[in-house]
Amino acid sequence: MSSFVSKFHQYPTNETFSNDFLRQVPKADLHCHLDGCLRPQTLIDLAVQQDVKLPTYDAELLKKEVFKEKYDSLDEYLVCFSYASAVLRTSEALERVAYEQAYDQFHMGVRYFETRFAPQLNTVPGKLSLEDVMLSVDRGSKRAMNEFNAKDQDVVSGLAPPFAYGIIVCAMRYLHIGFLALL
Q1: DSSP secondary structure string, 115-180?
Q2: Whole domain around residue 85: which residue ranges?
Q3: TM segments (predicted)?
């Protein structure tokens, strides 16, 4: 397990079960927002690449100022989503964040997750269409799925369920190309 995983992926304090045990139990996460799972350093990297202004470019300070443990209001909580929406406007950014979301899910012991987002918030007229957004997220998630399933010996030998994902969007028009959509 990488140092990133051991530091970043911690369950709430539990006197009955250890973090290692909880990570090993296969799980499903049926409600995981793509724009709510950005790693602070990824947000910084993407903001620098795209000239997006952040309150700080220090990951630890960003965690304290934007990605807090507790928020005083819904408005305060939603601020982090405005930064995420600002940087998730390229195919590369969407694919990277989708891959990292799948990576993080896998390393928490999740075997199936459903990522959800509003693709219309990520479009850029003339540059990034709804279809581009959907396909970018799918590419990142699929790359992670294929990588993890090929490397995990328990999956390869049939001792563990394979890692898989679903995409939940608020755009019914993409149902015909294989995306699960909810209104």
Answers
A1: EEE-GGGT-BTTTB-HHHHHHHHHHHHHHHHHHHHHH-HHHHTTSSPPPEEEEEES-GGGGGGT-E
A2: 3-181
A3: 163-182
pLDDT, tens digit (0-9, with 9 covering 90-100), for 60-108: 999 888 888 888 999 988 888 899 999 999 999 999 999 999 999 998 8
Q: Is 94 in a helix, a strand, or coil?
A: helix
> Which CATH number is 9's domain given?
3.20.20.140
For residue 71, the Cα-to-chain-centroid distance in whole angstroms is: 21
> Residue 107: which of 17, 46, 29, 175 has the closest Cα?
29
Cβ–Cβ < 8 Å for 82, 75: no
- Residues 104-152 have pLDDT tens digits of 999 888 999 999 998 989 999 999 999 999 999 999 999 999 999 999 8
pTM, full prediction: 0.84
In this structure, what token pair is assigned to residue 174? 């993409």
Domain count, the chain: 1
DSSP string, 20-38: HHHHHS-EEEEEEEGGG--
The 8-class DSSP code of residue 181 comes to: E
